[in-house]
Amino acid sequence: MEKDFTERELDRIIEMAWEDRTPFEAITFQFGISEQETIEIMRREMKPSSFRMWRKRVQGRSTKHAKLRQDDIDRFKSSRQKPISGNKISKR
């Protein structure tokens, strides 16, 4: 089932998918889409070469899959990432 996302939401999904420490489960939690749906969005929205590079990068990466993460990592975002609330980056 295809969900309609705003351009801003699509940008955030793509950004989260590229972030090493953001698991697919965080994208599911925030946007209600599965890992497979995220992959389909990435395939559709990116150039083929960029998509292939991204897939190679995230396949098997333990930080992108909550089940493969170490038990002491329980956050969705990097501690160095700017605070984000409600899908909006907070102002400085």
TrEMBL record:
Bias (Basic residues): 56-67
NCBIfam families (UniProt xref): TIGR03643 family protein (TIGR03643)
Species, as recorded: Pricia antarctica
Protein name: TIGR03643 family protein
Composition bias, Polar residues: 81-92
Annotated region (Disordered), positions in chain: 56-92
Composition skew (Basic and acidic residues), residue ranges: 68-77
InterPro entries for the chain: CHP03643
